[in-house]
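Researcher: Quick test of sequence recovery. Tokens follow.
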């Protein structure tokens, strides 16, 4: 069951990232089109300002898209087949309070009607857990959590 949950979490994250990448790419193309089609009016400065704003918006979307593509590449490298005995990238972790999947930085997702915090191995919470085993505890922001299950 935990392996299926991990595979389903992978698919949810993959679909979420693909949707975000498509939306961001669309927004970037729309901003580029706006910059390209900004016709010169009798107020030359207004034209240049509008064009510059559209170009800035396009650049912002391009950076967001690059970041999403990087997260997507990282997600594809996560091993969802392995069962882990200690916390490392790819592990699905159940604490007394929260369920985490150490994979990429995505935040809370709903998988099979369960809330899972999808966190990067570089995040503070993952760093506090790395290398720990079932029964161990870790403290983050003054909150101590005990590791109940790792898969």
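Model:
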């Amino acid at each position: 069951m935990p392996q299926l949950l991990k595979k389903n979490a992978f698919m949810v994250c993959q679909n979420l990232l693909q949707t975000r990448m498509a939306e961001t790419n669309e927004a970037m193309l729309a901003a580029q089109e706006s910059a390209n089609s900004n016709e010169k009016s009798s107020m030359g400065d207004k034209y240049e300002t509008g064009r510059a704003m559209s170009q800035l918006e396009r650049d912002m979307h391009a950076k967001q898209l690059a970041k999403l593509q990087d997260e997507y590449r990282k997600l594809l490298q996560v091993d969802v087949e392995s069962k882990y005995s200690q916390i490392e990238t790819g592990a699905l972790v159940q604490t007394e309070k929260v369920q985490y999947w150490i994979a990429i930085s995505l935040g809370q997702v709903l998988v099979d009607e369960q809330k899972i915090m999808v966190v990067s191995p570089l995040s503070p919470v993952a760093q506090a857990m790395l290398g720990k085993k079932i029964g161990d505890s870790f403290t983050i922001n003054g909150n101590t959590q005990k590791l109940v299950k790792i898969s």
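The chain has two domains: 2-76, 92-150.
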